[in-house]
Specification:
It holds the Pfam family DUF4382. This is DUF4382 domain-containing protein. Keywords: Signal. InterPro entries: DUF4382. This protein has 396 residues and is mostly beta strands. It has 2 domains: 193 residues, no CATH class; 194 residues, Immunoglobulin-like, CATH 2.60.40. 3% of the residues lie in helices and 49% in strands. It has 3 helices and 31 strands. The strands form 6 sheets. Strands 3, 4, 5, 7, 8, 9, 10, 12 and 13 form a 9-stranded mixed beta sheet that branches. A hairpin with a 5-residue loop joins β8 and β9. The protein starts with a strand and ends with a strand. The N terminus is likely disordered.
Length: 396
């Protein structure tokens, strides 16, 4: 594994274990008609799991988005060792698992396949999950074992240059439970992001996070990157590989037992890392009241591809997302624990002055719950948790 790092930017604890990486536009090509593609793997936070293992058997790319697994024209990415078993939940806050690199003919590549090894009949499983407080269970990946996890990409290989990308494997949205059976399925949610070392990242510190804390960077209410604070590094977090420059990001720190905090107007540029605060001005979370919420999406039976998300409004045309889950493949439900205190909001300071928090009182215990099923309109219901826990159901 390697950290994305630059000595003048990243904390010393990160740099000491880091390997410096080439910029995405740097060298690495072999001749005037070919370039080099390098890939690494990272992860966003998972929900309710201590470990999520996948074993990468091979990676390959193609210039046709419709190419089949047996069609000619596939180019393999050379892996340092085959196969490679990876715990996705270790790949946070800039930590990467290098998959390898290969020389490719110049041109545009539009399909990538991540092939996973099949599970054996006994432990250790090649692909597995360990629910928090539970035992390790096999992670069923039927399509991945034959043709690979198909990912639509748009990668341009330029002559004599290195194209440097990160596969962001969102374990939280990719692992689907199957009722009370103890079985789990993999329905992968993977983004392909350019790798930067100078900017397009935000970092900071949360002083008293819990195992349930999450940090996300959102643009217009849409989560762009998320992670968890690292208690071993003074609550340090970093959100790298951001795709869009903007001065209007919201940094959302959500924790059902310690309330929600939002730093608004956070800028992101390709020139430098945006620092929200320093270690000696780490964000302090306050204890919060919390209530439970269960939401389901069914059409007689569970809709396995449905996703439930929870949002809060911070005024006219402004909202944040607190959490998102793929529904259970048997009963179609997702469960959440939500802080019911008002969201605390502060404005980003480029001078790293102490953040000044103000409550947005209208947000207290007020939520919007949404069901997203591919191919159908998004359904939404308001939820008021002032009277206690609640349940909402979506029918299709």
């Amino acid at each position: 594994m390697t950290h994305l790092a630059k000595p003048s930017i990243w904390p010393l604890a990160v740099v000491s274990a880091a390997t410096l990486l080439l910029a995405a536009c740097g060298g690495g090509g072999s001749d005037a008609s070919s370039g080099t593609l390098r890939l690494a793997l990272t992860d966003a936070p998972a929900c309710g799991y201590d470990h999520v293992y996948v074993t990468v058997d091979s990676v390959k790319v193609h210039q046709s988005a419709s190419a089949g697994e047996n069609d000619p024209g596939w180019y393999p990415i050379t892996l340092p060792s085959l196969p490679k078993r990876i715990d996705l939940l270790e790949l946070r806050n800039g930590l990467l698992e290098e998959l390898g690199q290969t020389a490719l003919p110049a041109g545009r590549y539009t399909q990538l396949r991540l092939v996973l090894s099949p599970n054996s009949a006994s432990l250790p499983y090649a692909n597995a999950v360990t629910p928090t407080g539970g035992a390790q269970a096999a992670l069923t990946t039927p399509s991945a074992q034959q043709s690979g996890l198909k990912i639509n990409v748009d990668i341009e290989i330029e002559p004599g240059k290195l194209a440097d990308f990160v596969l962001d494997f969102d374990a939280c949205k990719s692992v689907v439970s199957a009722g009370n059976s103890g079985k789990f399925n993999l329905k992968p949610v993977i983004s392909v992001l350019p790798r930067f070392i100078d900017g397009m990242a935000v970092d900071g510190y949360v002083a008293n996070s819990s195992p349930y804390s999450s940090v996300s960077l959102q643009l217009n209410g849409v989560v762009v990157r998320s992670t968890v604070p690292d208690p071993a590094r003074q609550g340090y977090f970093v959100l790298p590989y951001l795709p869009i420059s903007s001065a209007n990001y919201d940094l959302v720190i959500a924790d059902p037992g310690r309330g929600t905090r939002v730093v608004s107007a956070v800028p992101v540029t390709p020139l430098a890392i945006t620092h929200v605060n320093s270690a000696n001005q780490a964000i302090q979370l306050a204890n919060s009241n919390a209530q439970g919420l269960v939401a389901s999406a069914t059409a007689g039976n569970a809709i396995a591809d449905a996703t439930i998300s929870v949002h809060q409004s911070l005024g006219t045309d402004r909202e944040i997302e607190l959490a998102s889950r793929t529904v259970d493949s048997v009963n179609g439900s997702s469960s959440f624990t939500l802080a019911t205190d008002p969201v605390q909001v502060a404005t980003y300071s480029p001078t790293l002055a102490p953040l000044s928090w103000l409550p947005y009182n209208a947000s207290a215990a007020q939520f919007s719950v949404r069901s997203n099923v591919p191919g159908t309109p998004i359904q939404s219901q308001p939820v008021d948790l002032r009277a206690g826990s609640a349940r909402v159901d979506f029918s299709y």
